[in-house]
Automatic annotation (TrEMBL):
It is a multi-pass membrane protein. GO terms for biological process: transmembrane transport. This is Binding-protein-dependent transport systems inner membrane component. It comes from Rhodospirillum rubrum (strain ATCC 11170 / ATH 1.1.1 / DSM 467 / LMG 4362 / NCIMB 8255 / S1). Its main location: membrane. The lineage of its organism: Bacteria, Pseudomonadati, Pseudomonadota, Alphaproteobacteria, Rhodospirillales. The keyword Transmembrane helix applies.
């Protein structure tokens, strides 16, 4: 009995050591994924709801206004006095522009309001409420105080609501953004529309190529595979610039069509949706071919011969026997291509027009041009959430189809 227990203990110890060695082998990769993937996404999600900008420069005002609602008309005298003190302190510390920038996200004209008030602010006043309203009548409007209250942080839903074209009115009620400001839902729809179109085109073009690669003799298939992989050895910027040369008014495509007599004057193929879709399809086509090829290569020709021997025509054998076995390749290639297309920035920026920019363009704009990290992170969070929802729908559908096929 003791020998049996000792043997079991040794086996458990050996199993634990084996698991620890296996974990040690994957630990560098796990750390790499955490540092380069998990941490940036977590930081992006944090920035989309973290709003400390105004509270850092106006600590007294953001603290005093807590609990105020627009239904109370205007804040009490203590809030006005705190604002006067913060205005004076931020003017002296040269941080007034920071407060103006943050409030301007929510209330147009905030910069003029703050700098005008700071210039007219008296050294003392019997009533700061009357003094501030005398400096600028807009301090008597609840919209201004509502914007300050919503920006008081440290957590906010302001950027996420803006990313889906929603906002709160002075009373805190949720409403749609004004028509001239409601752009992000349209941009998100455009992003998904372009990505879906590119995915479908890649599937239509990539399936015959993958089928040919999977059924050719190895020597010829290897040569063609080099051509499929060749774009990976060329910079994305170079490939996109090449399409600029090909698609411009005096480019090779238009000159060839005119020489063949197909058209009489150049077609507009650049700085519109056509150029974006053509260039993106070319760039992403290998990502569709490779998953399809890997699945087709594993399909034995025995199945087709068996179907033919049982009386099926070549077309029926292909549709009923071969094609269903390619579904994992369809799903993997389509999902990979679609997700990559969602985040494209360089290609639409170079060959697309103003009406063809995808969500990544606006994320880059808020990151580099306006330095509005909150809005950039919120748009990224919305894109991530939409991608995860589509992925969940895809896995559910594929799982259902797999059960039916089995």
């Amino acid at each position: 009995m003791g020998a049996e227990m000792s043997l079991k203990s040794k086996l458990r110890r050996a199993e634990r050591l084996r698991q620890l060695r296996a974990f040690g082998l994957i630990l560098p990769l796990l750390l790499f994924l955490v540092v380069t993937f998990v941490v940036p996404i977590a930081d992006m999600l944090r920035r989309s709801v973290h709003d400390p900008e105004l509270s850092q420069v106006w600590p007294a005002t953001t603290s005093a206004i807590k609990g105020w609602t627009a239904r109370e008309r205007l804040p009490d005298e203590a809030v006005f006095a705190a604002l006067a003190g913060d205005l004076r302190a931020s003017r002296d510390a040269a941080t007034l522009a920071t407060a103006a920038r943050r409030l301007n996200y929510d209330f147009n004209g905030s910069r003029t309001l703050l700098f005008t008030t700071a210039r007219k602010l008296p050294a003392s006043a019997p009533s700061w409420t009357e003094a501030l309203i005398a400096a600028d009548p807009r301090w008597g409007e609840t919209e201004v105080w509502g914007a300050i209250n919503r920006a008081s942080g440290p957590l906010t839903a302001f950027f996420l609501m803006q990313a889906v074209d929603l906002e709160r009115d002075a009373t805190g009620a949720l409403r749609g953004a004004p028509t001239d400001e409601a752009i992000y839902i349209d941009v998100l729809g455009r992003t998904f529309g372009i990505s879906l179109t590119v995915t479908v085109l890649c599937l239509l073009l990539g399936f015959p190529v993958a089928y040919l690669l999977a059924n050719l003799p190895p020597r010829q298939a290897n040569l063609l595979m080099i051509l499929v992989l060749l774009p990976f050895w060329t910079s994305l910027l170079v490939r996109t610039a090449a399409w600029v040369v090909l698609l411009q008014d005096q480019g090779l495509v238009n000159n060839l069509l005119i020489w063949l007599g197909v058209i009489e004057k150049p077609l507009r193929l650049m700085y519109n949706r056509v150029g974006v879709i053509v260039a993106m399809t070319h760039v992403l086509l290998p990502f569709m071919i490779l998953p399809l090829y890997s699945v087709m290569k594993g399909i034995s020709p025995v199945y087709l011969r068996a179907a033919r021997s049982l009386g099926a025509t070549p077309t029926i054998a292909f549709l009923r026997v071969y094609l269903p076995q390619c579904l994992p390749g369809f799903g993997a290639g389509a999902l990979l291509t679609f997700i990559l297309a969602l985040g494209y920035y360089i290609t639409p920026a170079l060959v697309g027009g103003a009406a063809d920019q995808m969500l990544s363009y606006f994320i880059a704009f808020y990151t580099s041009d306006t330095v509005n990290w909150g809005m950039a992170s919120a748009l990224g969070a919305v894109l991530l959430a939409a991608t995860l929802v589509l992925y969940a729908v895809y896995t559910r559908l594929v799982g259902t189809d797999s059960v039916k096929l089995s």
